[in-house]
Amino acid sequence: MCARRVSAKVFLCALLGLGIAGYAQSPSNVLSFARVTGVTPLSNGVELHDGELVMRITALRDDVLRIRAGRKGALPEDASWAVLPEARSASVAVTQDTDAAVAGFHTGALRVSVSKATGLLTLSDLSGKVLQQDAEPIQFEGDRLHLAKTMPSDEHYFGLGDKTGAFDRRGQAFRLWNTDAYAWQESTDPLYKSIPFYLSYRAGTTLGVLIDNTWPSSFDFGKTLAGTVQYRAESGPADIYLLYGPSAKQVLASYAWLTGPTPLPPLWALGFQQSRFSYMTQARVLEVAGRLRSDRIPADAIYTDIDYQDKNRPFSINTTTYPDMPGMVAALHAEHFHVVAITDLHIANVHYPPFDSGVAGGHFVKNPDGTLYVGPVWPGPSVFPDFTRQQTRLWWGTLYKDFDHMGIDGFWNDMNEPSVFIAHLTIPDDVVHHIDEPGFVTRTATHREVHNVYGMENSRATYDGQLALRPDVRPFVLTRASYAGGQRYAATWTGDNSATWNHLRLTTSMLKNLGLSGFSLAGADVGGYAGTPTTELLTKWIEVGAFQPIDRDHAEKGTGDHEPWVGGVEQEDIRRHFIETRYKLLPYLYSVMEENTRTGLPLLRPLFLEFPDAAPDRHPLDVDLDASGEFLVGPDILVAAPPFFDKTDDYDAKLPSSGWYDFWTGARVDKAEGKVATGGLQPEAAKGPVLSVVHLHPELAKLPVFVRPGAILPLAPLMQSTAERPQGPLTLRVYPGPECAGQLYQDDGTSFAYKHGEFLRMKFACDASAKDGSLTLHIGKHEGSYPAWWKEIVVEVEGVSKAPASVTVNGRAGKVTSSGNAIVVTVPDGGGGVEVVLQE
Fold it and tell me: Engineered SS bond to 747: which of 462, 580, 738, 759, CB 3.0-4.6 Å?
C-alpha cells in the first residue's frame, strides 16, 4: 500500500531530489587522511593522527574490526541503532606491527597496515592475501564523508537489502534513503530500506562491510569510477565494521553477532498468508477464510488492511463495515486462522485516544518552531511519533492493548519510511526529533539524520509493545521500511511490486540479498501487488512463493482477485499442491529458521553460500544469467526456476555438485547429462568441483526442485494449519550421498518455553561407506523436553532402484517396501535413538 495520490510527475521529481545534495559542489574545507603524523598503540588496535584528523582501528574479535574516524581530534559518538552494545564493546588483544613505513597490527586472523606516507589502509589475512585496500584515504568534505576502495576485476558484491537490478551489485550504484516507491521497476532507486551492509566475494573469500551511518548515503560499485568502490554520506560518523570469513557463512554469523539475529518466529508465520488492500467488510474476511477451509487450501493467517479502520485512522475500527471485530477474530481463531492487522504509524490529527494521549506525552515530532508537524496521509492531516525517544516507543506499545484483548495475533507496520503525500514523499528534512535513548547522548536531531532508521524504530516499538502485552508469546511484526539490525524486530517484504513476469523474476535476487543483509524472514507480494496477474502468472508465483520465507498473497485495491481459486478448478488444484508441499516441509523450514537464530544463515540462500567451490574459478554461480533464477531453501533444497519465467524455451539448470535428486520423484539425476539415473544404496561421489547441468522444459504445473545428495529431510503429514497437531508418523526422506546428515527442531511454535528446555531436537546421519554395500541410518535421540507428535518414523530412502536384501532396526529384522524411486521402512521412535541398516 502506498501514496498513490501523489501524481507521477511529483513522484518522479521527488525521487530526483533524494540524492545527497551538494556532491557536485566541492567544498573548500576538504580534509583527507593523507599521511600518518602520530601513532598511539592500543591493547586492541591503534590510533592514528593526521593533523586534526583522528582514526582509531580496533579489533572486536580476531575476525571483526572497527574503524572510527573524526575531525578536530575527536571521534564520533560511540552509539548505534544497528550494532549491539555488547558487540561494540568487545575487544581482543592484538600484536603491534608499526615500523618506519607503516602503522598497524595483526590479530589471530587479520593484518592491518596503514602507509605513513599516504594514509592508505590495507587489510589482509595472515597469509598476505589482500582483502580490502584503500583507493583513496578517508576524506571529509565539510560534513560529508567519502570512502574509496580498490575494486579487483574478479570481485563480486552482494547485500544492501532488497535493491532492484542484478543480484551482483558490481557496476551498479545505489542511494540509501527509505522511500515509498509505489510500483517500483527494475531501475527504481531508492526503495524502502537502508541497509548499509555488503559482502565482497572473491574466489570464495568473503569480507563483510557495515558502514553504520543513518544519514542519506550512496554506494557506487564501479559505476561512475571504474575499478573503485565508493561510499558517500551527507553527514554523520565514519563508523565502519569489517567482518572476515573467509567463508560467506562465517561473515553472516559475524553480522548476526554484530547486529543481532532474527528471533525465532511463531510457527504460523511460515504458513500461507492471505491479504488484500482491502477486504472491505468483516463478511468478506470471513468469506475468504471460509473458502480457504472449504477448498482445503492450507493457510494460517489473514490480514486486514486500512479499510477496517474508521476513516483510515490507526487504532480505530469502522463499526459499520466491521461491526464485531472481536467476534470476527474469535471466529477466525476457531478455524485456526491468525489475524494480522495493519497499524500505520501516522496518527490522525483529530481528537481521538491515540492523538490525545500522544499530545499529552509529547510523543510527536515537531517543526523547528516547536509546533506539531502535520502531513497528509491516508487519514488526512496526520502527526508522526518520535520513535527515537524510548518513552515514545513505550507509549506506542500501549496503543495495542485493545487489539491484544481482541486476540489479534500480529501487526503490520506499513507506510513507515515514513510516507507522506507531499512532493518530497516524506517528513521535511528540518522536522525535529529528540534522541532520548539509553546509550546515546540526549539531543535533538533533524529528520534527515533520523529518516533511515525511523521505520526500524517503529517496528521495534511494535515488537516491544506486543512483548509487553504478551510476555510469553512470540511477536509477529511485518515492516516495510527498516535499517541494519531491523531483523531483530520484524519480518519484511519487498513492497509494492507489480503483477508482471519480470517482477516475479526480480523477487529471487531481492530475497537473496535481503537474506545476506540479515533479513531471513522476508517475502514478496505473491501475484504482484500493483495490477491483476494473468491466471498463469498467479499460478507460477504461488508455486515459487511456496518455497520462500514469507508466503503472503497480497493485492492492491481496484485489481482483480488474487486468491488461490481464481481462474478455475484446474489452476486451483495446481496452486493447492504447492501450498500443501510447503506445509509438509514445515518441519524442515522451521528447523532452518531455528538454525538462523543461532548462525545468521538465511532460509532462502544463494548457491554460492553453500557451494563456493562449484565453479572451477570459484566465482559465485548466482551471477551467471542461466543460474539467476535458482535459489536454495536451507542447505538442501534447490529450486531451479528459469531465468525468465515468461519464456517458453527449454533451459539448462546448473546444479552445483553431482548426484542431485528430483524432489518430486526421488530419482537421481545423472551429473553428466541430466538424465534420470538408477542407483543403489551407495551412490558414487564426484571428485573435486563438479557442476551438473540439467536440461529442463518449463511447464505451468511444474517447478523443478532438487535435493542435495546427502540430505535427510524431515516432513510432516499434511495439515490445514500449523494450529493442528499432525496426525501420523514423521517422515524422513534420506538422499544417500556424501556427508549425509539432517536435523529436526520442534517446539510449541508460540511461546518462549523453548528457552527453558521445552524443545525437541534430533540429529540424523547416514553412512554408505561400508565395503559390504550397506547403508546405515542413525536417528538421534530426542534432546529437550518437548514431546514428539509421532510414535513412528517412516524412512524413505530415495533413488534406490531395488529393494535391499535385508533390513535391521536396532539389530532386529525389519520390513521394507518399495514406493516409486524409494524404499520405505517404518520404525518405532521412543526417543532413545534408532539405527537402521539396509544391506544390498
Answer: 759
Provide the H-helix boundaries in 613-720: none
Model confidence over 299-347: pLDDT tens digits? 999 999 999 999 999 999 999 999 999 999 999 999 999 999 999 999 9
Return the axis-axis angle of helices 569-584 and 535-545, rounded to nearest 10°: 10
Domains and CATH numbers, the chain: 26-246 (2.60.40.1760), 267-346+389-420+453-596 (3.20.20.80), 604-706 (2.60.40.1180), 712-839 (2.60.40.1180)
> Do 776 and 770 touch, CB atoms closer than 8 A?
yes
Q: At what angle do helices 535-545 and 501-516 cross, to 10 degrees?
A: 20
Q: How far apart are CA 185 and CA 207, in angstroms?
A: 30
DSSP strand E in 423-538: where? 432-435, 443-446, 477-479, 482-483, 491-493, 522-523
> CB-based contacts of 696: which residues, under 8 Å, 6+ apart?
640, 642, 650, 651, 652, 653, 704
Q: In this structure, which long-range contacts are made by residues 351-356, counting pairs with CB atoms below 8 Å and at least 24 apart in sequence?
A: 352/313, 352/316, 353/315, 354/313, 354/314, 354/315, 354/399, 355/383
pLDDT, tens digit, for every residue of 419-470?
Answer: 999 999 999 999 999 999 999 999 999 999 999 999 999 999 999 999 999 9
Q: How many CB atoms lie within 10 A of CB 790?
A: 17
Residues with active-site annotation: 414, 417, 496
**pLDDT tens digits for 183-237?**
999 999 999 999 999 999 999 999 999 999 999 999 999 999 999 999 999 999 9
